[in-house]
Write a structure and sequence with these properties.
- This protein is α+β, with helices and mostly antiparallel strands and 177 residues long.
- The protein is 18% helix and 23% strand.
- It has one domain (20-154).
- It contains 4 helices and 9 strands.
- It has a 5-stranded antiparallel β-sheet, with helices on both faces. The chain has a two-stranded antiparallel sheet with strand order 3-4.
- The protein is globular, with a radius of gyration of 22 Å.
- The protein starts with 19 loop residues before the first strand and ends in a 23-residue tail after the last helix.
């Protein structure tokens, strides 16, 4: 059964600027909203923004996702983004910068606050603009290859033995070695 949309959205979002994609991030965290609305960069998952955001070039698809909270997976089902929270942080990022996020990369300082358009409270379907939004004034993103082992080392979960200046043992090794 195909659903046909007749009613227009109650939510009015600014158009997506030319050459940019709109990222959506669902969150239940009041701290995430407070941080980005107070000028902090969007940083989630150690700079791995592509793991927690969805990218759109069509504003109607953004509105559909916000209103419905799900989107088709292409596998005959839907992915429930609303499960992650009732607030949606919106970011506009140049397409060329977004391409840097694809693959196994991390943003060293998070997505700059100048790209944060604002957020939508899905309970009231109200849009709250970010006063710091100014995508034309944001410098290029700094990224680095994400290394799973490096992340584990930084978290203190794995220790990499350091080379020593001692020669390797020779002859019979003790059983405890």
């Amino acid at each position: 059964m195909k659903i046909i949309r007749i009613a227009q959205s109650k939510l009015n979002l600014p158009p997506i600027p030319d050459g940019m994609v709109r990222l959506t991030h669902f969150t239940a965290s009041p701290y995430a909203i407070k941080n980005v609305m107070n000028g902090d960069n969007f940083d989630y998952g150690g700079g791995m923004a592509q793991t927690t955001t969805d990218a759109f070039s069509d504003n109607q698809k953004v509105l559909n996702l916000i209103e419905e909270g799900t989107y088709p997976t292409g596998l005959g089902g839907n992915f429930d983004r609303a499960y992650f929270g009732s607030n949606v942080i919106l970011m506009d990022i140049p397409f060329d910068e977004h391409k840097k996020l694809l693959g196994v990369t991390a943003i060293t300082e998070g997505i700059p606050n100048g790209y944060v358009l604002g957020y939508v409270d899905r309970k009231t379907m109200s849009f709250h603009p970010n006063s710091g939004y100014s995508p034309a004034n944001v410098p290029p993103l700094e990224t680095k290859e994400w290394d799973a082992l490096e992340g584990l080392v930084e978290e203190g979960l794995v220790e990499i033995p350091q080379p020593t200046s001692q020669p390797p043992p020779s002859g019979d090794l003790p059983l405890s070695w």
